[in-house]
Specification:
The protein has 10 helices and 16 strands. Helix 4 packs antiparallel against helix 5. The chain has 2 domains: 120 residues, Four Helix Bundle (Hemerythrin (Met), subunit A); 213 residues, 3-Layer(aba) Sandwich (Rossmann fold), CATH 3.40.50.10470.
Length: 353
């Protein structure tokens, strides 16, 4: 829980999982109850929950929900398949499902339901501890900048705060740690079209009292060129073994601009986000989402009602890749729960289980 909110909580006695519906943020704070496998899959697919770590946690609880209805091998395999098909890029989804399968396959069917709830909660608790450690390891980067320049001016992209995880966040974890330590800082928050997840980061930072400014995506290069940014920190949905990192579309452009202006660019992510089987970024699948996300924008109308406004006629051809890949050569370090490393030394940290 952070600032009185939480992204996900389980109630095994009631056979339910409660999520914060992020499709309604920042305009409405609504919690929804999941009771079935299909509801859990829909929550992931529709982005009611989002962020690689939280997707993994939700998928684990989705297995627990599924096994309440049936717990034989057929039911387990079906639940795994349904959840795997929800989002292709976020590797934490597959990491969590692989872990649940390994823990449950050897169990007698009658013992699986309780075990699934236990193991899913363990994944959620571990994610919270992991992200707190990411914050601790990233904190010295901001401390050093503030000591040298008076204020650490951070740019981020998309939302990699506590809304994207079980707690603390990934890219925002060092920012929250620095704010708690009284370190002067300011955050540049880009809108992150077309899903506008930057609105979620702005909402988070506002709740926490962290100084920040919201900008259009196309302003980032200008600010980097004008020396108004000291460091860029982003999250990741999948990192290849060589350090290439997939994150929300638009990240690569910020990395290029940061590199051209000698601004350090860092990726903050748990080791569960590393796909050790992917040798480089070419092996990372990139999710293509609905064209309607590009043709429409959601906001508040004049009566303060959530409304969708069409920007383009339906017949206009669009592309909507949800992610891009930042090459390892543009990444100064990867901030993990085991410390900071360069892309070249990522392999020395080893896989998480």
């Amino acid at each position: 829980m952070q600032n009185g909110f939480h992204t996900i909580s389980a109630n095994p006695a009631n056979c339910s999982v409660t999520i914060l519906d992020q499709t309604l943020l920042p305009w409405q704070t609504v919690y929804r109850e999941l009771r079935t496998l299909d509801e859990a899959a829909h929550a992931i697919r529709s982005m009611q929950v989002r962020g690689a770590p939280l997707i993994g946690v939700t998928a684990a609880f989705g297995i627990a929900l599924a096994l309440e209805a049936a717990c034989d091998d057929v039911a387990l395999d079906h639940a795994l398949a349904v959840l795997r098909a929800t989002r292709p890029t976020a590797v934490n989804l597959h990491w969590a499902l692989d872990r649940m399968r390994a823990r449950l396959s050897g169990r007698a069917p009658g013992a699986r339901a309780w075990q699934a709830w236990h193991d899913a909660q363990a994944i959620a608790d571990e994610d919270a501890r992991t992200n707190a450690a990411i914050g601790a390891h990233g904190l010295p980067l901001l401390q050093a900048i503030a000591a040298a320049r008076g204020t650490a001016r951070v740019m981020t992209h998309c939302n990699a705060g506590w809304l994207a995880t079980a707690a603390h966040g990934t890219a925002l974890a060092p920012i929250y740690a620095a704010h708690a330590a009284g370190i002067p800082l300011h955050v540049w928050v880009s809108e992150t079209r077309p899903r506008n997840q930057g609105l979620l980061t702005e909402w988070e930072l506002r709740q926490a009292g962290v100084p920040h400014t919201f900008i259009a995506d196309n302003s980032a290069g200008h600010l980097l060129m004008r020396n108004e940014v000291d460091i860029v920190i982003v999250g990741a949905d999948r990192i290849a073994a060589n350090g290439d990192a997939a994150n929300k579309i638009g990240t690569y452009m910020k990395a290029l601009a940061a590199h051209d202006n000698r601004v350090p660019f860092h990726v903050a992510a748990p080791l569960s986000t590393v796909d050790w089987r992917a040798t480089n970024g070419d092996a990372i699948p990139i999710e293509e989402r609905s064209a309607e996300e590009v043709r429409n924008v959601v906001g508040l109308d004049a009566n303060a009602h959530i409304a969708s406004v069409r920007l383009l006629p339906g017949e206009v051809a669009t592309r909507n890749p949800a992610f891009d890949v930042t090459p390892a050569r543009l990444i100064r370090s990867i901030i993990t729960e085991r410390g900071c490393c360069t892309p070249e030394t990522l392999g020395t940290l080893g896989p998480t289980v």
